[in-house]
Amino acid sequence: MRMLALLVLLLQAKENAWEAAPRVREYGWMSTSVWKGMHEGFLKRAKEGKCDLLFLGDSITQGWGNNEVWKKSYAPRNAVNFGIGGDTTQNVLWRIQNGELDGLAPKVVVLMIGTNNFGLHGDAPADVAKGVAAITRTLREKLPASKILLLGVFPRDEKPGTGGRKKILELNAELAKIGDVSFLDIGAKFLAADGTLPKETAPDFLHLSVKGYQIWADAMEPELSKLLQ
Questions:
Q1: How many domains, in total, are found in the chain?
Q2: Catalytic residue at 204?
Q3: What is the CATH number of the domain that holds 192?
Q4: Is 207 a catalytic residue?
Q5: Which domain holds residue 81?
Q6: Does some domain include residue 38?
Q7: What is the model's pTM?
Q8: Catalytic-residue membership of 59
Q9: Considering 102, 204, 218, 225, which one is annotated as catalytic?
Q10: Per residue in 23-32, pLDDT tens?
């Protein structure tokens, strides 16, 4: 019985190890030094406070930049963008465990992360969802008064039925089960009637155009407005 109990504990520890493995950037299109420089910039911005709306994620979040949709929809709301291209759930988890939330008290955190876990690590959707859940728990611990708007991962690849599309559908089904957040899946808004992802919305079939960001803003606005009140 003791051996069986020990085996169960070891299996549980192995299962939880992936989830509890935040890490710095060590791969991808930018060097670790550039990534750390962006992180340090976020630390400085966090200390300034004055943030009612925090966007957290990877390149799709970073891509808001200061485009016309951001200027119109979010800049007047004291919005801050902490997106870094290529980040995985583990990278975001490391960032928020290492100072990026210190000094901030946003009313709402908009979180979308996970698509890079498929390409960089080949992680299973269920494991990616564990990473997202670890992020939401950390947000709860560090920002107990903030509301979390968890977005389903947006579709990628031009045509439906691809492996990438299927993994995202599986992931979003798991994300919908995460508690203590508002979950919103707006992925269908980006697609044409036949299920394809138009180039004018996502030129590389992953990252959004300005038109894509307008679709995002419009689709998210009803739920975001409710959470900000």
A1: 1
A2: yes
A3: 3.40.50.1110
A4: yes
A5: 51-228
A6: no
A7: 0.89
A8: yes
A9: 204
A10: 665 555 566 8
Residue matched to tokens 């995460």: 178
* pLDDT band (50, 70, 90) for residue 11: very low
For residue 154, the 8-state DSSP code is P
Torsion of CA 75, 81, 85, 90, to 10 degrees: -160
Asked whether residue 169 is assigned to any structural domain, the reply reads yes
In the DSSP assignment, the letter for residue 12 is H
Query: To the nearest whole number, what is the mean pLDDT of the chain?
Result: 90
Task: Confirm if 18 and 89 have CB atoms less than 8 A apart.
Answer: no
Which one is catalytic: 39, 59, 146, 185? Answer: 59
What's the pLDDT tens digit per position in 168-212? 999 999 999 999 999 999 999 999 999 999 999 999 999 999 999
- Determine the pLDDT at residue 119: 80
Structure tokens at 63: 């891509």
Does the residue 2 lie in any domain? no
Residue 12 counted as domain residue: no
- Cβ atoms of 87 and 63 closer than 8 Å: no
85 near 31, Cβ under 8 Å? no
